[in-house]
Amino acid sequence: NSNIAGTEAIINCHEKLLTSNNIIQMNSLMLDQYQNVQELILSKNNLTLISSATFIKLKHMKKLDLSDNFLSEMYIDALVESNNLDELNYSNNKLKVFDNIIFDKLSTITKLNLSHNYIEILKSTIMSTPITNLIVLDLSHNNITFIDDAFLKPFVHLQYLNLSFNKITSISENTFLQLPDLRILMINNNFLSLINFNELPQNLTELNIGYNKIIKLLSEPSQIHVANINFTNISQLEHLHISGNSLSNFPNMTLRRLKVLDISNNNFSHIPIYLSSENYPSLNTVIVSGNPIKNLTLHSKLRLQSFVANNITFVEKINYDTFLKLEAPINDCINLTISNNEKLIFIDEKALDHMNACFVDLSNNKINYISPKLLLSSNGTLKINNGINLQGNPFACDCSLQWMLSDLVPQLYVINPSILNNLRCATPPSLSNKRMVHWYKWKKKIFCDDIAELSDLSEKYIVHLEGVSEQKVITIESSPGLLAILGSAILVLIVLFVIGILLTQKLEKKRSRKNRRF
Questions:
Q1: CA distances from 305 to 2, 265, 311, 484, 513 (A)
Q2: Cβ(460)–Cβ(483) below 8 Å
Q3: Distances in Å between the alpha carbon of 177 and those of 91, 180, 185, 229?
Q4: How far apart are alpha carbons 462 and 467 in whole angstroms?
Q5: Per-residue pLDDT for 455 more than 80?
Q6: Sign of CA dihedral 427, 431, 434, 438
Q7: N or C: which end of the chain has fewer CB within 10 A?
Q8: Position with higher pLDDT, 497 vs 121
Q9: DSSP assignments along 334-401, one per residue
Q10: Residue 410 backbone class (left: φ over 0; alpha: ψ -120 to 50; beta: rest)
Q11: Omega before residue 428 within 30° of 0, cis
């Protein structure tokens, strides 16, 4: 398949199996008529070999996709004829060794994808010649155990480096410092036990070191390099992901541009003391989920747009001062997510008083009571701009929660009906698993009256829509007058039925007496 635009062409031979004995047959591609081809896709063709004459006609090719084949070598001689090659995709092949000598002959490449191979060894044949064009290098999903300084040194303008999903256990101190233009470093899912922020390049904007075996983060200059390394490194960092490690302490450091911090699934027993707006003035998102935290109290003032604390096993309550130091940015609001915490049973009615909240998610905790003062202002309107998600909590539907039916459910129904889908009662037994929205616009105080009676009536006389996403709920109510009328009517019918039986019997007796006279 080809797509020709002017003098440019894209030839797509994905999974065409253009092979004979797993060697590509270029005659079948008819490339002679497309010498100006710009992109050639040969992925998933069971290729094991590429001859040196394969691409000899393609002088202007910029993109070449050889992914999902069985190539065990780079076949530089076959590629070198394409002296304009910009992007090369060699992912999902059988490479075991990669030598940076390829860039000596293919100096035009800016993006190289070597992911999902079997690379164990990174050879550095080029020792001092700078590789000026390479910007993106993807070595993820290989078997790399160590990165040698000499291998990365030539990549003076590299901006994106992906080393994730390898077997790297350590990194020497100069490995990344020699990459001054590096912006994004992905080294998650390896076996690192230590990261020193002072050994990272200054212009780094995104760092993902999640799911290693890190037990310590260093931010202070090492003793050996006190004289020539100051903590000015990673000053441009905006995203820091260190989830899934074994960290229990977070260093005292300043990252003025940091926007997103993910410290989930570590061993923090409390919110880090040094986590503050003073140290991180640009921070807008913090994720502390999956840590063995017992108390979510913040120790320092922090302005955020999003705070996430999910799946925390040990937290049992949120006191009035838990989030006293957590605020929304000026002229903005904050999204607060505290869900799926199996022991969280209580939240103080003043816990959100100071906070301009966009949306609060308290779903799937163990909360059985919510004070109206937590969510409603003095005039009964909802304090939280975009609503609150209380689904999946075991609410005790007694008179103390009648306000939820009377004031909260109607407002949430207007804002976002979907957050009422699983808002249910857990107790008493007569209302167990009943959705609160079933009583939408019900005039009686359901949770304050005879619950057993009301529950029975609701089953007989309430007609409602099961899907809360509908815009209308139809309610037909019973009343004492209606019940009295129905009762009287039934009684009259019974009396008439009895009278009819008696009259029938009397007439039958008269007929019997007349018959005896003849």
A1: 48, 21, 20, 58, 98
A2: no
A3: 27, 7, 12, 11
A4: 15
A5: no
A6: negative
A7: C
A8: 121
A9: EEEE----TT--EE-TTTTTT--EEEEE-TTS------HHHHB-TTS-BSSTT-EE-TT--EE-SGGG
A10: alpha
A11: yes
Task: Measure CA 283 to chain center.
Answer: 18
Q: Which residues contact 263 (CB under 8 A, 6 or more apart)?
A: 242, 243, 247, 250, 272, 286, 287, 288, 291
Helix (H) or strand (E) run with residue 4 in it: strand 2-5
Phi then psi dihedrals of residue 88, to 5 deg: -130, 120
Beta bridge partners of 306: 285, 335
Query: In this predicted structure, what is the pLDDT of residue 470?
Result: 38
Q: Give me 68's structure tokens.
A: 């999902």
Q: Which is nearest to 232 in space by CA: 247, 218, 241, 220?
A: 220
Task: For Cα atoms 160, 166, 167, give the angle at the middle one, nearest 5 degrees.
Answer: 135
Report the Cα–Cα distance between both ends of the chain, in Å, rounded. Answer: 111
Who contacts 319 (Cβ-Cβ below 8 Å, separation ≥6)? 297, 348, 351
- The C-alpha atoms of residue 144 and residue 191 are separated, in whole angstroms, by 11
Could you tell me if 493 and 500 are in contact, meaning their C-beta atoms sit under 8 angstroms apart? no
Position 471 scores a pLDDT of: 39
Burial pattern 353-378, b for ≥16 Cβ within 10 A else e, equals: eebbbbbbbbbbbebbebbbebbbee
Q: Report pTM.
A: 0.80
Structure tokens at 505: 């019997």
For residue 110, which of 129, 137, 140, 128 has the smallest C-alpha distance? 137
Q: Flag whether pLDDT at 46 surpasses 50.
A: yes
Bridge partners of 147, per DSSP, are 171
Q: What per-residue confidence (pLDDT) applies to 80?
A: 81
